[in-house]
Recover the amino acids of this structure.
C-alpha cells in the first residue's frame, strides 16, 4: 500500500512515472498514514534563539560539548530499537543538525539503514543553518545519503534576522540554496518566520518574494509564537509588544497568495510544496502515521503507544550508555483515542481528514454542526476540511470537547 | 449568678477598628483563654468569615471578671455582624444587651455604619461606653475622635475611654467602666420564663442551636418549652454557654445569655425573634420580636452545567438552614436555562452566598446582575411585583413603575463634600440633612433609589473619596419613577439575562456603556458577534466582537502530540467556564458586567 502512492513522482530519477502528485492530494494524505519514518534529534545549537523552547544544548553556555559521545549514543539507541520499517523518511531536526560533521551524520544514517532498512526512494532530510553552509557541504551531505535539505532562512530582512538573533546574512541563504541545487538534492526547502512585532508588511512581502525567487521546491512558514520561559516571553512580560494574531493572519494570507501564484500548494497549515515535493516525514506525522524518535527529548508513535525521551542530556546519555532505553514517559492510546487524534491532526492538512469514525460523531454534535453552519469546516466528498487554516486549533478544541461528552 | 453582677453588652465597631483584638484582650485579661489559642477559637468557624474578616452570625461569649470591689462579675459579650447587609442582625443582638461599647479607631474616626448602629443602640435604650482604640498609633488623633463621639452621644470628652487593644493600654480601666457604667439586667427571676431567641444556626450533629437571652425566670435542661410565636412545644436537651469553648451549664438564669439545643432539625421551628417560655407555666406576653429581614436585591443563579440544577437546589436548601434570610424560587431563562431567583440582603450577602455555593458545594455558577424589587402598575388597575427585569410587563400594558428608595447616610471628610454631592446627584439622590461631626468630618443624609446603590455606588464613593467616606442605608418607601428596560442582543437575539431596568434619562448612556463593556468581556469567537442594546424595538447602541483570525500553533513540537493535545485540552477546560448563549460563548463575568461599567 505504501508503495502505491509516493510523494516524489516528478519523473526523472524516481521510477514512479512522470505524473507529479500535488502536495495537497487526498490520496497522498491517505497513503501517508501508513508510511513509517524516523526522527533524529540533534540538540546542539551555537546559541539559543530568543523564541526557542526546544530541548537543545546551548554551546555558547555549555563548555566542551562532546558531539562524538552523543553520536555514539544515538547509534546505540538505534541498535536497541525493536524491528520497524522499512523507513519511508528520515528527518534530522534540532537543534542544529548541521553542527555535526557529514561523517557523523552519515554514521547515524547507516545505523538506521542497518537496523530498519530503507526503501529505494526514502526521503533523508536535515535542517541546515545557512551560516554552517560552505562550498563542499552540499556534496558531503549528498554523499552520506541526504536527499533533502531544509534551510533555516527565517527572513531576508537583516533587521528582523537581528531581532530573531539569526547570525547569517540574506546572501548566505541565497548561496546555500544555489549550492544545494547544484549538489543535486531532490528537494530544497526554506523555513521562514513571520509576525515579529518589529516586522512590517513590506518587510515580510520582501522576504517572501526573495524566497519564492529562489530555486526551491518546498517552503515552511511559521508564525512567531511566544513560548513560556523564553527570552521573548520575558521581554513581553516586561512590557514589550507581543505578536498580534490578526497581523500574523494577514501575513499568512499574503504568503499563501504569493506562494500559490509561484506554483506552491499549501498542504498543511505551515507547509507548502510544488507538485511531487510534499515532505514525506511531515505528511506522515500529520496523518498520525508511525514514527520513531531518537535522541534528546525525541518522540515516538508506534502501535498505539507514544513515548518520549529524556530531555536532560546527562540522563539521556547515562541510560543509553547503560543499555537502557532513555524513556521519560509513555502514553497508551486505545482505538478511540487513536481515531480522535488522527482526526485532530488531520485537520491541519489541506486535504483534510477522513469523514469517518470519530469525524461522524463530531459532525453530528452541536459543536460540529455550528462549525459547519459557519462554514469553518466543510465536508468534501469523504473528507472534513478546515476552511480557515489559521483557526485549526479552535476547531480541534471543539472536537476535543465532543470526545469528552462521550466518555 | 445574681443579676446585679451580670453585664450583657455588644461591641459596635467598623471593620478593622479593632473589635476582635479588643475581645481577645478582654478574654485574656479575665483569664478565659490563653493567648495562643485565642484567635482560632474566638473567630467564627466559617472560612469565609475568617478570610473576609467579617462576622456574619452573632455569637455570645461569657467571661468572669473579678472587679476592684472584690466581687466576681459575669460578662456576656454578644458579638454583632459588622456589615450593612447584616444590620438587622445587629438590631436583634442589641435586644439581648443592656449596654454597648462604641469602639472607634483613633486614626480613622466614626464611620457611617458605626454611627447607624450607635443610633440603633440609643433607640433601644442601651447604655453606651465610648471607646477610642489604637491610641498607640502614630497617626492616632484621640482628641478629635473623642470629640466626634461626644458630639454623637453627649457627655464629656474625659469620659471617653482610650485604649490600645493591641498593647493592652486602658483595658483594665475599660473593664471597670463596664462594671460601673453599664446597667445590670432587670428581669424577674421568679416570674414565668421569657427568653429571647436572638440568633440560631444549624449544626450537622446537634441540629438547630438557638442563642437565647433569658429575661425573666430560668431555663434548664429537661424543661418542656414552648415557642410563643410558632406555638411549637419542645424539650430542652442541652443548655450552656461559650467561653469561648462550649461549656454545658445545664441552666441559664434571668439576665443570662447562652445556647439551647432541642434536637430540632427544622430551623423554621425556632425563629429568631421568638420568645421561649415554659409549656406548663407560659408567660402571658411575648417579648418584642423583630421584623423578618427582607431581601433588598435579587439575582438569578444558574449552574453553568444544566445538569447541576438539582444540586444547586439542595445546596440552597442547606445554606438556608443557617441563613433564614435567604429566599429563592426557581427561575427559567432562555439564555441560561434553569436556575433560581435568589433574594439577598445586599451585595456582600450575595457574594458570600455565591462563593459558598461554589466553594463548599463545588458548583460552577453564573450570576446575573442584581436587581431590586419593582412594582409595575398596570393599565387595568392591578399591579405586579417584578424581581427580575425579564418579568417586567410590556410598555403597552404598564401604567407606571415604582421602585424602592432608601435613606442613605454618608460620613466623609469635609473636603469631599462637593465630590460626594456630585456623585449622589448622578445617582438620583435627594439631599437631606447635613451635620458636622467635627470641623473635619460631615454626616450627609440622602434619599436615593436602592437600584443606584446596589450597582457601583459604594465603589465609586470609595474611589472618589480615597476610601475615606463610609456608607449606611435603610429601606424607606416605594416611589414612582420613569423607568425603562434596556435589553441586550447578541447575534441579534435578545438575551434575557442581560436585561436591566434603568431610569429613562440614563438608558442611552447605560446601553452604550454596557455594550462597550460586553465587547471587552466577550472573547473573540470564530465569527463576528454583534452586540446591541435596545429599548423595546429601538436599537440604542451597537458594537461588534470581531471574529478571531488566528488560533493555531505553528509546529507540532517535534512530534509531541501528547503535549499538543494536553494544551488544547487545558484551553478547552478554560472554555468550560463559558456559557453558551445561542452560538456565542459568554464568560460568567459578562452577566454581571452591569456592575462594572461605572458612569462616564
Ligand atoms: N496599632 C494598633 N493596632 C490595632 C489595635 N487594635 C487592633 N489593631 C489592629 O487593627 C487591625 C484590625 O483589628 P481587628 O481586631 O481584626 O478588627 P475588627 O475587624 O474590628 O475585628 C488588626 O491588624 C489589629 O492588629 C490597637 O490598639 N493598636
Ligand atoms: S537554532 Fe533552532 S533549535 Fe537552535 S535555538 Fe535557534 S530556533 Fe532553537
Amino acid at each position: 500500500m505504501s508503495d502505491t502512492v509516493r510523494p516524489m513522482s516528478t519523473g526523472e530519477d524516481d521510477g514512479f512515472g512522470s505524473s507529479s502528485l500535488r502536495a495537497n492530494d487526498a490520496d497522498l494524505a491517505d497513503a501517508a498514514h501508513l508510511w513509517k519514518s524516523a526522527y533524529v534529534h540533534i540538540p546542539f545549537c551555537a546559541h539559543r534563539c530568543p523564541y526557542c523552547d526546544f530541548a537543545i544544548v546551548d554551546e555558547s553556555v555549555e563548555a566542551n560539548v562532546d558531539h562524538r559521545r552523543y553520536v555514539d549514543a544515538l547509534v546505540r539507541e538505534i541498535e536497541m530499537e525493536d524491528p520497524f520499517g522499512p523507513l519511508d523518511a528520515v528527518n534530522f531536526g534540532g537543534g542544529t543538525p548541521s553542527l555535526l560533521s557529514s561523517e557523523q551524520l552519515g554514521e547515524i544514517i547507516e545505523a538506521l539503514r542497518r537496523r530498519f532498512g530503507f526503501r529505494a526512494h526514502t526521503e533523508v532530510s536535515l535542517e541546515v543553518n545557512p551560516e554552517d553552509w560552505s562550498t563542499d557541504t552540499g556534496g558531503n551531505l549528498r554523499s552520506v545519503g541526504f536527499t533533502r535539505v531544509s534551510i533555516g532562512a527565517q527572513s531576508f530582512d537583516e533587521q528582523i534576522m537581528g531581532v530573531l538573533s539569526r547570525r547569517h546574512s540574506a546572501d548566505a541563504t541565497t548561496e546555500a540554496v544555489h549550492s544545494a541545487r547544484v549538489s543535486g538534492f531532490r528537494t530544497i526547502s526554506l523555513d521562514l518566520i513571520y509576525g515579529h512585532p518589529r516586522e512590517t508588511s513590506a518587510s515580510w512581502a520582501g522576504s517572501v518574494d526573495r524566497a519564492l525567487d529562489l530555486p526551491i521546491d518546498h517552503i515552511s512558514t511559521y508564525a512567531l509564537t511566544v513560548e513560556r520561559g523564553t527570552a521573548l516571553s520575558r521581554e513581553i512580560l516586561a512590557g514589550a509588544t507581543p505578536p498580534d494574531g490578526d497581523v500574523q493572519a494577514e501575513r499568512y494570507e499574503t504568503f499563501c497568495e504569493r506562494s500559490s501564484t509561484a506554483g506552491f500548494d499549501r498542504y498543511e497549515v505551515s507547509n507548502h510544496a510544488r507538485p511531487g515535493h510534499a515532505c514525506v516525514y511531515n505528511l506522515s506525522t500529520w496523518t498520525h502515521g508511525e514514527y520513531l524518535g531518537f535522541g534528546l527529548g525525541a518522540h515516538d508513535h508506534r502501535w498505539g503507544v507514544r513515548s518520549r525521551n529524556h530531555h536532560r542530556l546527562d540522563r539521556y546519555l547515562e541510560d543509553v550508555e547503560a543499555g537502557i532505553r532513555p524513556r521519560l514517559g509513555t502514553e497508551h492510546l486505545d482505538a478511540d483515542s487513536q481515531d480522535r487524534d488522527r482526526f485532530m491532526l488531520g485537520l491541519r492538512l489541506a486535504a483534510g481528514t477522513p469523514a469517518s469514525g470519530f469525524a461522524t460523531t463530531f459532525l453530528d454534535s452541536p459543536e460540529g454542526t455550528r462549525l459547519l453552519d459557519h462554514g469553518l469546516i466543510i465536508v468534501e466528498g469523504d473528507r472534513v476540511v478546515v476552511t480557515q487554516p489559521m483557526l485549526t486549533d479552535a476547531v480541534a478544541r471543539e472536537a476535543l470537547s465532543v470526545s469528552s461528552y462521550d466518555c | 449568678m445574681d443579676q446585679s453582677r451580670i453585664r450583657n453588652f455588644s461591641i459596635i465597631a467598623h471593620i478593622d477598628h479593632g473589635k476582635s483584638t479588643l475581645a481577645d484582650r478582654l478574654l485574656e485579661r479575665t483569664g478565659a483563654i490563653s493567648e495562643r489559642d485565642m484567635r482560632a477559637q474566638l473567630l467564627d468557624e466559617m472560612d469565609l468569615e475568617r478570610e473576609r474578616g467579617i462576622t456574619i452570625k452573632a455569637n455570645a461569649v461569657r467571661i468572669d471578671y473579678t472587679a476592684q470591689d472584690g466581687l466576681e462579675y459575669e460578662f456576656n459579650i454578644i458579638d454583632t455582624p459588622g456589615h450593612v447587609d447584616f444590620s438587622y442582625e445587629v438590631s436583634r443582638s442589641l435586644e439581648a444587651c443592656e449596654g454597648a461599647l462604641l469602639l472607634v479607631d483613633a486614626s480613622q474616626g466614626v464611620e457611617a455604619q458605626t454611627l447607624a448602629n450607635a443610633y440603633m443602640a440609643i433607640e433601644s435604650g442601651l447604655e453606651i461606653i465610648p471607646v477610642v482604640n489604637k491610641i498607640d498609633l502614630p497617626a492616632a488623633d484621640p482628641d478629635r475622635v473623642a470629640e466626634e463621639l461626644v458630639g454623637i452621644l453627649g457627655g464629656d470628652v474625659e469620659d471617653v475611654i482610650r485604649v490600645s487593644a493591641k498593647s493592652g493600654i486602658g483595658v483594665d480601666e475599660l473593664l471597670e467602666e463596664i462594671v460601673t457604667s453599664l446597667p445590670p439586667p432587670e428581669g424577674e427571676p421568679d416570674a414565668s420564663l421569657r427568653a429571647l431567641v436572638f440568633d440560631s444556626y444549624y449544626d450537622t450533629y446537634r441540629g438547630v442551636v438557638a442563642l437565647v437571652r433569658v429575661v425573666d425566670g430560668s431555663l434548664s435542661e429537661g424543661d418542656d418549652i414552648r415557642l410563643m410565636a410558632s406555638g411549637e412545644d419542645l424539650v430542652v436537651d442541652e443548655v450552656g454557654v461559650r467561653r469561648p469553648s462550649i461549656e454545658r451549664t445545664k441552666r441559664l438564669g434571668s439576665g443570662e445569655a447562652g445556647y439551647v439545643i432541642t434536637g430540632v432539625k427544622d430551623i423554621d421551628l425556632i425563629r429568631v425573634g421568638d420568645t421561649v417560655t415554659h409549656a406548663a407555666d407560659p408567660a402571658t406576653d411575648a417579648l418584642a420580636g423583630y421584623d423578618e429581614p427582607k431581601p433588598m436585591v435579587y439575582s438569578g443563579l444558574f449552574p453553568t452545567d444544566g445538569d447541576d440544577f438539582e444540586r444547586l437546589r439542595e445546596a440552597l436548601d442547606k445554606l438556608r438552614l443557617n441563613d433564614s434570610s435567604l429566599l429563592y424560587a426557581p427561575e427559567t431563562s432562555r439564555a441560561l436555562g434553569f436556575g433560581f431567583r435568589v433574594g439577598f440582603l445586599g451585595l456582600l450577602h450575595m457574594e458570600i452566598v455565591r462563593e459558598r455555593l461554589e466553594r463548599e458545594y463545588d458548583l460552577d455558577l453564573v450570576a446575573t446582575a442584581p436587581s431590586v424589587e419593582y412594582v409595575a402598575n398596570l393599565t387595568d388597575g392591578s399591579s405586579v411585583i417584578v424581581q427580575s427585569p425579564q418579568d417586567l410587563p410590556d410598555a403597552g400594558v404598564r401604567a407606571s413603575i415604582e421602585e424602592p428608595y432608601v435613606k442613605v447616610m454618608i460620613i466623609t471628610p469635609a473636603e469631599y463634600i462637593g465630590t460626594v454631592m456630585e456623585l449622589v446627584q448622578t445617582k438620583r439622590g435627594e439631599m437631606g440633612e447635613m451635620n458636622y461631626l467635627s470641623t473635619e468630618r460631615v454626616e450627609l443624609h440622602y434619599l436615593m433609589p436602592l437600584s443606584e446603590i446596589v450597582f457601583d455606588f459604594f465603589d465609586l464613593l470609595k474611589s472618589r473619596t480615597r476610601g475615606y467616606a463610609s456608607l449606611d442605608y435603610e429601606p424607606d418607601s416605594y416611589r414612582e419613577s420613569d423607568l425603562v428596560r434596556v435589553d441586550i442582543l447578541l447575534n441579534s437575539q435578545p438575551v434575557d439575562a442581560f436585561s436591566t431596568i434603568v431610569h429613562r434619562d440614563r438608558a442611552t448612556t447605560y446601553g452604550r456603556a454596557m455594550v462597550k463593556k460586553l465587547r471587552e468581556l466577550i472573547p473573540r469567537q470564530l465569527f463576528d458577534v454583534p452586540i446591541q442594546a435596545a429599548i423595546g424595538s429601538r436599537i440604542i447602541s451597537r458594537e461588534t466582537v470581531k471574529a478571531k483570525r488566528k488560533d493555531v500553533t505553528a509546529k507540532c513540537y517535534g512530534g509531541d502530540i501528547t503535549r499538543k493535545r494536553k494544551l488544547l485540552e487545558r484551553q478547552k477546560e478554560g472554555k468550560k467556564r463559558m456559557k453558551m448563549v445561542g452560538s456565542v460563548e459568554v464568560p460568567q463575568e459578562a452577566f454581571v458586567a452591569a456592575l462594572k461599567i461605572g458612569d462616564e
